[in-house]
């Protein structure tokens, strides 16, 4: 498989040569999932604010080590916007004792829940953004393969990753063709045109799938994707990769003991 | 809209993760029946299609536009088991590459959008296909109703999970009303887009639509009137 084509899937990757980029994909995946687990397991109480601050320092440190630009991190955070709205509503609708903040009567438990929600979601999104910025989609698929994701699922995933940019490119060409013929996306007539595009895209994608299958058969495919021997990962690499979740877990443990 | 990390408590996340894993295991077997040994390339390309089409903004009317979630549409196009796999793979890619939906909430998201949306959408579709006339409009109407109901069904399942393991003490009626109301509107958009896309596919390649297989008839062989054999040969 080739490198990223600058399509929607490859756009998350930031090519650098850092210690974070050099981590094997499955180590990085385990590290980020473990970090998210630690963050999610942290209790939501005002006394835990230092722990959350510590997590933020850790994940931002990892981002700095990987030389991920700040703009990429901010753009990564945009996905949680709908939940920011939800979190902002929580103090207004939640039950329990009220406190006055800037003339608004807000629920104490709602404020706490909203703060916890935003902190946890933001920290996990930051960690996942660093993962996507330092690992190519193809490597991530290979990492999941090493983590024993079912073989058929790995194949579907690798076909999707391989062809997502191709299919999205097809969609872009259809849009250019539409617009160069004077199409304006307004009104019910436009729905018919855009839906026709999506329908054609499905037919083309499905037929491409059939062609890919025939091409595999004609090259002696037997339903398995050949994979090279998996390189052994030295303990040092695991330790480097797991430094992030391990230090987060240490913070959590320190908080638990202190409480 | 994907559930992020930390939205539901750990037991609920673990439970939905187990449900999602079981569903995917069943779907892997079911998809083999739908697509036989072509499963991987066809499901992969269909997942790429779902991923791409979720980026398209459709004008839905009244000056608004929406994008497709696609559970019901995919189920009608390629069959429910393959649809579950496609949605799972799309959610996995979105969580890992775009941080859209938490990594620890992946099971929750697969349960809501892979299992509940597809099951509700396809269940309603199959039921109505049986009741409605065996025509193209019958299939379209059934698919529209399935797509419409798949969205509030997923929202209701989310409210159920929130009641079981939400991290905030919010009156359930408020959440139910807000989520239900918003998602009924989103469901209308989903239904309009699903019917429009399905109409387009049915008019070009009706043989590709899994949910319209019962409309397929063997072609009748007939001589064309007024055309004699020697005329055609000359």
Automatic annotation (TrEMBL), chain A:
GO terms for cellular component: ATP-binding cassette (ABC) transporter complex. It is found in: Cell membrane. It is a multi-pass membrane protein. The chain crosses the membrane at residues 23-41, 47-66, 73-94, 114-135. GO terms for biological process: cobalt ion transport. It comes from the Bacteria. Keywords: Cell membrane, Membrane, Transmembrane, Transmembrane helix. Pfam families: CbiQ. This is Cobalt/nickel transport system permease protein. It comes from Geodermatophilus nigrescens.
TrEMBL record, chain B:
It comes from the Bacteria. The chain crosses the membrane at residues 40-60, 72-97, 103-125, 137-162, 182-204. This is Cobalt/nickel transport system permease protein. It comes from Geodermatophilus nigrescens. It is found in: Cell membrane. Pfam families: CbiM. The lineage of its organism: Bacteria, Bacillati, Actinomycetota, Actinomycetes, Geodermatophilales. It is a multi-pass membrane protein. Keywords: Cell membrane, Membrane, Transmembrane, Transmembrane helix, Transport. One of its GO terms (cellular component) is plasma membrane. InterPro entries: CbiM/NikMN. GO terms for biological process: transition metal ion transport.
């Amino acid at each position: 498989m080739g490198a990223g084509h600058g399509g929607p899937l490859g756009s998350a990757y930031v090519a650098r040569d850092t210690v974070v980029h050099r981590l094997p994909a499955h180590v990085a995946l385990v590290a980020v999932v473990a970090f998210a687990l630690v963050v999610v397991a942290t209790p939501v109480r005002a006394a835990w604010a230092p722990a959350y601050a510590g997590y933020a320092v850790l994940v931002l440190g990892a981002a700095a080590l990987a030389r991920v630009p700040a703009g990429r991190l901010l753009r990564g955070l945009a996905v949680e916007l709908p939940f920011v709205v939800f979190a902002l509503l929580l103090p207004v609708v939640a039950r329990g004792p009220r406190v006055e903040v800037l003339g608004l009567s807000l629920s104490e438990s709602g404020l706490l829940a909203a703060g916890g929600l935003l902190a946890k979601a933001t920290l996990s999104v930051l960690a996942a953004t660093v993962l996507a910025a330092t690992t190519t989609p193809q490597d991530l698929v290979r990492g999941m393969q090493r983590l024993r994701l079912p073989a058929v699922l790995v194949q579907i995933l690798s076909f999707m990753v391989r062809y997502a940019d191709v299919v999205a490119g097809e969609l872009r060409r259809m849009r250019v063709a539409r617009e160069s013929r004077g199409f304006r996306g307004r009104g019910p007539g436009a729905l018919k045109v855009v839906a026709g595009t999506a329908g054609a895209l499905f037919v083309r994608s499905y037929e491409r799938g059939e062609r890919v299958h025939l091409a595999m058969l004609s090259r002696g495919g037997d339903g398995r994707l050949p994979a090279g021997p998996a390189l052994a990962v030295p303990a040092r690499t695991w330790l480097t990769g797991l430094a992030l979740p391990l230090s987060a877990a240490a913070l959590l443990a320190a908080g638990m003991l202190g409480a | 809209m994907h559930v992020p990390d930390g939205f539901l408590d750990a037991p609920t996340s673990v439970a939905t993760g187990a449900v999602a894993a079981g569903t995917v295991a069943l779907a892997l077997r079911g998809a083999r029946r739908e697509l036989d040994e072509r499963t991987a390339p066809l499901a992969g390309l269909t997942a790429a299609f779902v991923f791409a089409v979720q980026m398209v903004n459709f004008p839905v009317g009244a000056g608004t536009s929406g994008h497709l979630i696609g559970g019901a549409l995919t189920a009608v196009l390629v069959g429910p088991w393959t649809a579950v796999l496609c949605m799972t793979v799309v959610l996995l890619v979105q969580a890992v590459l775009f941080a859209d939906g938490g990594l620890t909430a992946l099971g929750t998201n697969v349960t809501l959008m892979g299992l509940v949306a597809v099951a509700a959408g396809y269940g309603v579709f199959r039921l109505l296909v049986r009741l409605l006339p065996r025509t193209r409009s019958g299939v379209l109407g059934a698919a529209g109703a399935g797509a419409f109901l798949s969205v509030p069904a997923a929202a209701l399942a989310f409210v159920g999970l929130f009641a079981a393991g939400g991290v905030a003490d919010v009156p359930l009626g408020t959440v139910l009303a807000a989520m239900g109301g918003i998602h009924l509107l989103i469901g209308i958009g989903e239904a309009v887009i699903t019917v429009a896309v399905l109409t387009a596919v049915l008019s070009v390649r009706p043989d590709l639509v899994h949910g319209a297989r019962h409309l397929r008839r063997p072609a009748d062989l007939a001589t064309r009137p007024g055309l004699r054999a020697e005329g055609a040969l000359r």
